[in-house]
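Appendix B: complex inputs.
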Amino acid sequence: MTMTPTFKTLAAAALIALAGAAQADITIGVSLSLTGPASGLGIPCNNGVKLWPTTIAGEKLKVIVLDDAADPTKAAQNAKRFVTEEKVDLVVGSVATPAAIAMADPIAESGTLQLMLSPANLPAGKDAWAFRLPQSNAVMAHAMLQHMKKQGVKTVGFLGYTDAYGEGWLVDFKAEAAKIAPEIKIVAAERFQRSDTSVTGQALKLVSANPDAMLVVASGSGAAMPHKAIVERGYKGKIYQTHAAASRDLMRVGGKDVEGSYVVSGPAVVADQLPDSHPSKKIAQDFIAQYEKAYGPNSRNQFAGHSYDVALVLQKVVPVALKKGKPGTKEFRAALREAVETMGRTVVSHGVLAYTKDNHWGFTTETGVMLKVVNGDWKVE
Amino acid sequence: MDFSIASILTLDGVTNGAIYALLAMATVLLFAVTRVIFIPQGEFVAFGALTLAILQTNQVPGTVWLLLIMTAVATLLEVVHGIRRGAPAARWLRAAAQTAAYPVAISLLTIWAAPQGFPLWVQALLTLALVTPFGSLVYRLAYESLADATVLVLLIVSVGVHFALTGLALLFFGAEGFRNPSFWDERFSIGALTLSGQAVIIFLASAALIVMLFLFFERSLYGKALRATAVNRLGARLMGISSTNAGRLSFTMAAFIGALSGLLIGPTTTIFYDSGFLIGLKGFVAAVFAGLSSYPLAAVGALGVGVLEAFGSFWASAFKEVIVFTSILPVLLWRSLRDPHSDEE
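Resulting structure:
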């Protein structure tokens, strides 16, 4: 076979490109719940990942996305594969709390940076290599409690998932209440699973306790069913939802029953309604413009914002870390962690991040925005 | 706990139980006729509910494409079998056309009807017509060539079919859940009790289906043929009853029952692409109560599961599933003590 000159040039160019890329790529392992019970969170996150730039500080990004199906075992396997086979420079994920917790151990052992996309509570000392991108439950509970205080709420009924997300909220909400609003008490706590077809029993018990407000801890469109059950049992008080429910699916599935409820959220989804003084306003508008250009109008959501923010953080830390080592080396990985810890005040679409050596929950208490559902749309309170 | 709370919980439990009863019936039916423990029964529930939900948005549901793909594969198999066996072309061409005719027709009808925004009940009928042929296709593609395998092999295939159908449902319906509008928006108040129109429809539809199944098995020739296959496959075949056709028919009925359950449960809760599994599993628990053989016992077991679930969620919400699925243990114990059996498979 005779090669045409164009073909030869192309082949040579490809070879050079491949060889060059193989040496200096920054490899990022992303584990998301693309199937399974948290896929409603994982799919928008993956959409956000697709908006990442192809190069940062002149280095090409090689992104490997794996599905963990929100299953802790699978997530831990993905984490091991990332650090042993793929030799990644950092890991992003998972978006499901139980899965993110399962990934933390193998990643920390190998000395690799983990940027979690869920507010996962890890025991003290276990989060040396893990940083959370989403707002901590405590930070969100802070905004919610401020709002409850203003509304004169004294008693709260809790209806949450029987998993780490529900449990985390219960613990953090109580702790935060003790700090800033000791008069607010949880008077009844009930659990349910996303796959439940009915929460009548739980709703009955909560409504008979007659609290001033209800707190529903659930994610995506799954947050609508418990909400409706409480309303159907004749509850007339205020109903609060967490930041995992801050997507339009709540209104789509909940219909008129979710009217007037309060949802705590990051600023990214309501950029246009934020005051001009809000630090995130411009970046969040950028995010929405890019995201909705790619995925259609009104497709914006909380989770895509988190994965979008990962790129913003990387743009700040990668140039710093590159001074200490080449991608693919141990030095580079350690330098990445150090750079995140010392990056200081960083404005992202979801608020202001300020990680320190002892605090791997980046967001300050100003990040939470209380939204009210009015006429099937968000309204900043 | 007072009387009004107990009555609300009972009503809620019986409403869910009625759905589980339908699924338990389908499970018993399939096991009796084909010896398949059909774990993916719940998937038809999700398919039914989600197909209607997508039709409600005036879009063509992904079910259509899945149906066409599965039909294409089944038709191809028919042709390959025909050629391999050296059958005359006219015969396998006719068999292939028979396989493809109905699914293609209903798919075209749906593609035409979806953007028209027909009333809810028309879309519900369309959904039933669209999901029902899946039963026969699933049987052809997954089970037919294994019809004489052991129960264990068929069970393993069921697990595979379950994962395949869930994955396809995610692909075709997306990750977010849907809730369908109620078929009947009336509410009746009796003291503290509120009976929704949808619950009335659930009771009526379940009761009607049970009566229809009874009549089908007792009065019709097809029903008697199915019962004969259930009692003795070989004997039935010697009497001229095709066990292949019996399998296809029973799977078609199971898919119909599943889709109907999906339509019934859709307005009462949010259905996700994977919601069907747990609903189907509770129907399966009820069927096990009946030893996978008795329809009335399965119905009673299903109501029991529903009520147990409702009270479990009131008393110990965090352990509700544990309570429901542990309840199978005493039943199994009682069953094995009452009629000890030997492993003959």
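The CA atoms of residues 160 and 191 of chain A lie 5 Å apart.
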